[in-house]
Here is the input.
Amino acid sequence: MGNQKYTQEFRESAVKLVLDQKQTVAAAAASLGMPHNTLVAWVIQARKGSGAFAPQGEKDLAARVRELEAENRRLRMERDILKKATALFAQEERGRP
Here is the structure.
């Protein structure tokens, strides 16, 4: 099938066939016309509560962590630039009579 994109609703329904309705992964995948290994991965994620099956709070938290890491990188870069500029200005001041 290639890089098939599935909706969240489809993923959840497929996983429910296995977890709630006790179908085998092979039977559920065959009935849905999807790759067996894809459904295996979804079931594992659902059991762990990760990936597309992570609770919204965890998704929000992960997004916030990414935002803070990006801000941290930006602030470190700005700090390093300011340190270099301060060092340059200090050299210029020492060179003046």
Notes: The first helix runs from residue 8 to 19. DSSP finds four helices and no strands in the chain.
